[in-house]
Amino acid sequence: MSSSDQSDADLIDRVKKVHRAFPTGVTIVTTEADGQPFGLAVNAFSSVSLSPPMVLVCINETSSSYPRFFASRRFGVSILSHDQQDVAMRFSRSGGDKFAGLSWHVGENKVPLITDAAANLELEVVSMLMAGTHTIFIGKVLSAETSGKPSLLYSGGGFFDGAQLVPVVTS
Ligand SMILES: Cc1cc2nc3c(=O)[nH]c(=O)nc-3n(C[C@H](O)[C@H](O)[C@H](O)COP(=O)(O)O)c2cc1C
After folding, report:
1. At a CB cut-off of 8 Å and minimum separation 6, what does 158 contact?
2. pTM for the whole thing?
3. Cβ(117)–Cβ(81) under 8 Å?
4. Per-residue pLDDT tens digits for 56-76
5. What domains can you pick out in the chain, each with its CATH number?
6. Does 80 sit in the ligand 1 pocket, CB within 6 Å?
7. 6 pLDDT above the threshold of 90
8. Quick check: CB of 44 below 6 Å from ligand 1?
9. Which of 58, 60, 98 to mutate to test the pocket of ligand 1 (most atoms within 8 A of CB)?
10. Closest by Cα among 73, 85, 90 to 39
11. Buried-state track 150-159, b at ≥16 Cβ within 10 A, e below 16
12. How far is 171 from 160, CA to CA, in rounded Å?
């Protein structure tokens, strides 16, 4: 390994640590192809615009479900609730039928969604940007629902219960 390869690897390690220092929720990003649902766990999710409402997700091009997203005009984002860690684990594994035996439904815009999630979005793809290992999918919101359930949180490589947050006391 050359010294520049080593410094690249060191930088990537430091960047991974930076990401672990940034708590997020956990989403399942879904799509439909040939009548079958596909999805993966994603924490690279962000609001982009409010008018019109748009969000983004970043999907690794090596993911087995990536070609389904690339070919699709619609996708879903289910923000997992605090008691859905098993769903996060199921969708962080690659390949296979992740929806078998799971409680899921089809939204009003024909997008697969996780039932009892903290929130669900259905989106129409408006832009795809290649960025290194990942593609950024920007979607315009077609439908938006919240359940009122607390969210599942991901921080430092572990899952946390968003129902048990301790408020910061302000003086
Ligand atoms: C908490 C968590 C967050 C993740 N975030 C992302 C992400 O933002 N983008 C991504 O491409 N993969 C992400 N992954 C990894 C994918 O879920 C994982 O690679 C999955 O196996 C891909 O499934 P597939 O190969 O069936 O498409 C995340 C995994 C976990 C557990």
Report:
1. none
2. 0.96
3. yes
4. 999 999 999 999 999 999 999
5. 25-150 (2.30.110.10)
6. no
7. no
8. yes
9. 60
10. 90
11. ebbbbeeeeb
12. 27
Please indicate whether residue 23, judged by its CB atom, sits closer than 6 Å to ligand 1.
no
β-strand partners of 114: 104
Ligand 1 centre and the CA of 171: distance in Å?
40
Contact between 82 and 163 under an 8 Å Cβ cutoff? The reply is yes
- Using CA positions, which residue lies closest to atom 12 of ligand 1? 42
Predicted confidence at residue 3, as pLDDT, reads: 81
- Residue 87's pLDDT band, with cuts at 50, 70 and 90, is very high
Nearest to 125 by CA among 106, 109, 147, 105: 109
Q: Which residue has the tokens 């997020």?
A: 24
pLDDT tops 90 at residue 86: yes
Residue whose tokens read 């919101």: 141
Confidence of residue 5 (pLDDT cuts 50, 70, 90): confident
Distance separating alpha carbons of residues 99 and 53, to the nearest angstrom: 28
Strand 27-33 to 104-106 pairing:
unpaired
127, two tokens: 């832009």
Question: What whole-number percentage of the chain has pLDDT above 90?
Answer: 95
